[in-house]
């Protein structure tokens, strides 16, 4: 135990608050994804591509590819181990919903884990979110988890494409850290509400942020429905897909941006921990969208993608 605290002290992270631990996780993960982007394309693709981008070729084209392909690189061999079904994405939303229920139950029951973390966070004296912003952010995150879970069960068309176990582990860790990030900056308000009732008031910032969140969620649902209605694998070309290659990723970024606005401390535009989550989402989905564009260009021809943005209109 002493050696663990010694190591943390050497690294200068022994007195990080729970929010700062979440921020470190998001930024280090985003940094790793970013560094993978500078690798040669075949290595990047072996480490990053999952889902349809990595789908097994049909028997006939597999034989053709085998005859033409150069020998596999180290990362192809490495990532050929531990491939799981892409449909295991559902575990992320089960985890997200379970964390939302757990933290909701901790709040209602004045639970010891929430109290310990809230006291640690409160001691760090970082800017605090009021009770309304904290509860609305928690509710929105719960809603997002439930919606995505329902989409996985009732909307998504089953496929057989794979995902590397590292993506699966990272996804579970991401939803664990996000579950904490949405309430941790409201620690003081939570502790105070356990002593005496706290006022609930909806600021324009919370209302606008929640409205944008609702809009982005509805649009993302349309995108997922369109993908589910396609023959696997064809080029999506309806709705937002007319303008963007991965609009479902665009709306994911808007969801987290609006969540960061809702959960902002008084006098701030955004919640720092949720903003760090957004940095991770932007990096991760940006890299995946890049892989999607390359896959579509290869499969359908670059001309079919002309005039479409990859993920962020006018930027990327
Ligand atoms: N917060 C985060 O860090 C994070 C990270 C990743 C994803 N997400 C979110 O999770 C959601 C799903 O992401 P994803 O990366 O799994 O999306 P995706 O790779 O586009 O796949 C979504 C679904 O659409 C199917 N699909 C994709 N392209 C298709 C095509 N051309 N034709 C027919 N079907 C197609 C896939 O089939 P297969 O199952 O057969 O592949 C899968 O069922 C997105 O909204 C994304 O924003 C969030």
UniProtKB/TrEMBL annotation:
<dbReference type="GO" id="GO:0005789">
    <property type="term" value="C:endoplasmic reticulum membrane"/>
</dbReference>
<keyword id="KW-1133">Transmembrane helix</keyword>
<keyword id="KW-0256">Endoplasmic reticulum</keyword>
<dbReference type="GO" id="GO:0102389">
    <property type="term" value="F:polyprenol reductase activity"/>
</dbReference>
<comment type="pathway">
    <text>Protein modification; protein glycosylation.</text>
</comment>
<keyword id="KW-0521">NADP</keyword>
<keyword id="KW-0472">Membrane</keyword>
<dbReference type="GO" id="GO:0160198">
    <property type="term" value="F:polyprenal reductase activity"/>
</dbReference>
<dbReference type="GO" id="GO:0006488">
    <property type="term" value="P:dolichol-linked oligosaccharide biosynthetic process"/>
</dbReference>
<dbReference type="GO" id="GO:0003865">
    <property type="term" value="F:3-oxo-5-alpha-steroid 4-dehydrogenase activity"/>
</dbReference>
<feature type="transmembrane region" description="Helical">
    <location>
        <begin position="165"/>
        <end position="184"/>
    </location>
</feature>
<keyword id="KW-0560">Oxidoreductase</keyword>
<comment type="similarity">
    <text>Belongs to the steroid 5-alpha reductase family. Polyprenal reductase subfamily.</text>
</comment>
<dbReference type="Pfam" id="PF02544">
    <property type="entry name" value="Steroid_dh"/>
</dbReference>
<feature type="transmembrane region" description="Helical">
    <location>
        <begin position="21"/>
        <end position="39"/>
    </location>
</feature>
<comment type="function">
    <text>Plays a key role in early steps of protein N-linked glycosylation by being involved in the conversion of polyprenol into dolichol. Acts as a polyprenal reductase that mediates the reduction of polyprenal into dolichal in a NADP-dependent mechanism. Dolichols are required for the synthesis of dolichol-linked monosaccharides and the oligosaccharide precursor used for N-glycosylation.</text>
</comment>
<dbReference type="InterPro" id="IPR039698">
    <property type="entry name" value="Dfg10/SRD5A3"/>
</dbReference>
<keyword id="KW-0812">Transmembrane</keyword>
<feature type="transmembrane region" description="Helical">
    <location>
        <begin position="88"/>
        <end position="108"/>
    </location>
</feature>
<dbReference type="InterPro" id="IPR001104">
    <property type="entry name" value="3-oxo-5_a-steroid_4-DH_C"/>
</dbReference>
<feature type="domain" description="3-oxo-5-alpha-steroid 4-dehydrogenase C-terminal">
    <location>
        <begin position="167"/>
        <end position="316"/>
    </location>
</feature>
<dbReference type="GO" id="GO:0016095">
    <property type="term" value="P:polyprenol catabolic process"/>
</dbReference>
<protein>
    <recommendedName>
        <fullName>Polyprenal reductase</fullName>
        <ecNumber>1.3.1.94</ecNumber>
    </recommendedName>
</protein>
């Amino acid at each position: 135990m002493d050696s663990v605290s010694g190591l943390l002290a050497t690294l200068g992270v022994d007195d990080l608050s729970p929010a700062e631990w979440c921020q470190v996780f998001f930024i280090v993960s985003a940094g790793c994804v970013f560094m993978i982007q500078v690798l040669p394309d075949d290595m990047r693709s072996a480490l990053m591509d999952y889902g349809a981008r990595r789908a097994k070729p049909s028997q006939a084209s597999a034989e053709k590819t085998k005859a033409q392909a150069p020998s596999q690189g180290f990362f192809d061999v490495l990532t050929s181990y531990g491939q799981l079904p892409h449909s295991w994405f559902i575990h992320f939303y089960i985890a997200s919903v379970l964390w939302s229920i757990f933290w909701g139950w901790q709040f209602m029951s004045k639970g010891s884990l929430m109290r310990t973390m809230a006291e640690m966070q409160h001691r760090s004296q970082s800017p605090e979110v009021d009770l309304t912003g904290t509860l609305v952010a928690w509710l929105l995150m719960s809603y997002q988890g439930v919606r995505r879970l329902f989409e996985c069960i009732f909307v998504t068309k089953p496929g057989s494409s794979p995902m590397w176990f590292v993506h699966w582990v990272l996804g579970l860790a991401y939803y664990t850290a996000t579950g904490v990030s949405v309430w941790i900056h409201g620690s003081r308000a939570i502790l105070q509400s356990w002593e005496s009732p706290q006022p609930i008031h909806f600021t324009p910032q919370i209302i606008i942020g929640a409205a944008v969140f609702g809009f982005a969620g509805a649009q993302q649902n349309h995108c997922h429905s369109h993908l589910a209605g396609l023959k696997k694998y064809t080029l999506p070309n309806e709705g937002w897909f007319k303008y963007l290659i991965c609009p479902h990723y665009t709306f994911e970024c808007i969801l987290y941006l609006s969540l960061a606005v809702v959960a902002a401390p008084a006098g701030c535009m955004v919640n720092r921990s949720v903003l760090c989550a957004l940095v991770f989402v932007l990096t991760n989905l940006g890299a995946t969208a890049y892989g999607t564009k390359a896959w579509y260009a290869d499969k359908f021809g670059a001309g079919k993608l002309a005039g479409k943005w990859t993920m962020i209109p006018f930027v990327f």
